[in-house]
Amino acid sequence: MNSLLEQLKISVSQALVAAFGEELANVDPLVAVASNPKFGDYQSNVALPLAKQLKLAPRAIAEKIIAKLEVDQICQKPEIAGAGFINFTIKPDYLVTQLSLIQADQRLGIEPVPSPQKVIVDFSSPNIAKEMHVGHLRSTIIGDAIANVLEFRGHDVLRLNHVGDWGTQFGMLIAYLKEAYPEALTTADVLDLGDLVSLYKKAKIRFDQDEEFKETARNEVVKLQAGNSESRHAWQLLCEQSRREFQVIYDLLDIKITERGESFYNPFLADIVAELDQQGLLQEDAGAKCIFLEGFTNKAGEPLPLIVQKSDGGYNYATTDLAALKYRIEQDNAERIIYVTDVGQSNHFAAVFQVAKKAGILPEKVEVVHVPFGLVLGEDGKKLKTRSGETIKLKELLDEAIIQARNDLESRLQEEGREETEEFINQVAQTVGISAVKYADLSQNRTTDYKFSYSKMLALQGNTAPYLLYAYVRVQGISRKGEIDFEKLGTHTKIVLAESTELILAKHILQLGEIIQEVERELLPNRLCLYIYELSQKFNQFYESCPILQVEEPSRTSRLILADLTARTIKLGLSLLGISVVERM
């Protein structure tokens, strides 16, 4: 089922061709949801930019378009407003037909894409021997939400965790552990991840200050890269220990992801450098092999190189990312590759993509997208850290959200005089706590920084997960109170849209498909968050003004259907954001 927006776009495009000829066949019809309800439900601005080309006034163009429009089944007669805007108001009968169609469909009328793509979403990417911290939060949940939407649309999605599991840091850590805790390099679980992090910091200090230790660490890197069995065994123990700790967080966040770390691409790095060299792209600079790029300069205006092989023969992130890109295109057959990392890596990816195009690694048919995001700030507007200045561990942040959600729930139960089981309290606290953290992040435009506040994200009012969950729970409460089985309402009952709040709610429910397609295209999950929030608001206004269980038929069943469709839409929308619902709060 095409969304209302798609149907109107098709109709306007056809009318443009019918009125002015085939040369306008590829013109964007510029149909969008009306910015103000007084202008109807949808609006097309296409007549305005065509004025110069067609040598006609926009209103005259709009009149000719309307004369050729075939939208009688969908809309009331389109109207022209202002300089030449075409306004569309959807007929209530058409809304009723569409609602009846989606009521019988588990996907709420949203069909998969006709031509699915192989898509890779690269997200999360913690470093081995380091604890996941708040900086990994955004990549993990934004990447998961994008992957969910693309999968729902029918794309073949490979979720990749490009873990930092290779490089100089392992030489430092192995060298230090050989002195301090040699058993940690031969036996599993001698140290926990927190101890490893602490020891890594000490190793880094030694590396920066002690030339002899630095040389030892570099030798350990060489042995590791050369495949020394003792070094590889130690490295694998460190990786396994970190993976188990990461998995605790992924389980808590309900994230599914396939690990393919930097080490996976290590065998391909020399070939990448050779390929770039054969194409004459490499230049030597201070002993390092580099590529000088267009548009990349330092503060002095001098060209900045992308280093692909260091003067000591080692490789870096750029080399690994080029090898990964080549593998993903040639072996994984990816058609769209999405990298979810912080905004600070924007220049890095722009440089890598430019080199990949020059080298023929990245063909025109493959789309690569960097999805940048801003910082997580404290309520003081500064980078979120502990009182001692340390980066906040992600596990501690999530645990605290669950604790605060539990405290809020227990206070509310006490006020209401309700008694609930420990199992109920634990389940609701965990769902609400984790949902609140996810939604607070996803509801922001990902390109900006946002302030992290437990009190705001757990509030029952405003654009928060608890507010949306409460709207869903309200519908389940109607079901329990009226002993209604929503699945047995049937599709034979005619939906009645007599009240303004019924009409407004119905129109909004039918916009879900448009929003999901927008997120698929723009990779901005906050658009879906805003849609669900506005849906919850419109449902609450409908709930307050339209009695449901107490009203006579056919309005009673009609309103029950509207309530059920709202709940199903909220549940589906939240599931795409990686958020679970609860049946009671």
From TrEMBL:
Motif 'HIGH' region: where in chain: 126-136
GO molecular function: arginine-tRNA ligase activity; ATP binding
InterPro entries: aa-tRNA-synth_I_CS (IPR001412), Arg-tRNA-ligase (IPR001278), Arg-tRNA-synth_N (IPR005148), Arg-tRNA-synth_N_sf (IPR036695), ArgRS_core (IPR035684), DALR_anticod-bd (IPR008909), Rossmann-like_a/b/a_fold (IPR014729), tRNAsynth_Ia_anticodon-bd (IPR009080)
SMART domains reported in the protein's UniProt record: Arg_tRNA_synt_N (SM01016), DALR_1 (SM00836)
Enzyme class, first EC level, given as a word: ligase
Keywords: Aminoacyl-tRNA synthetase, ATP-binding, Cytoplasm, Ligase, Nucleotide-binding, Protein biosynthesis
EC annotation from Swiss-Prot or TrEMBL: 6.1.1.19
Domain DALR anticodon binding residue range list: 468-585
GO biological process: arginyl-tRNA aminoacylation
GO cellular component, one term: cytoplasm
Compartments in which it is found: Cytoplasm
Reaction equation(s) it catalyzes: tRNA(Arg) + L-arginine + ATP = L-arginyl-tRNA(Arg) + AMP + diphosphate
Domain Arginyl tRNA synthetase N-terminal, first and last residues per copy: 6-90
Complex and partners: Monomer.
Family: Belongs to the class-I aminoacyl-tRNA synthetase family.
Protein name: Arginine--tRNA ligase
Originating organism: Stanieria cyanosphaera (strain ATCC 29371 / PCC 7437)
Native organism taxonomy: Bacteria, Bacillati, Cyanobacteriota, Cyanophyceae, Pleurocapsales
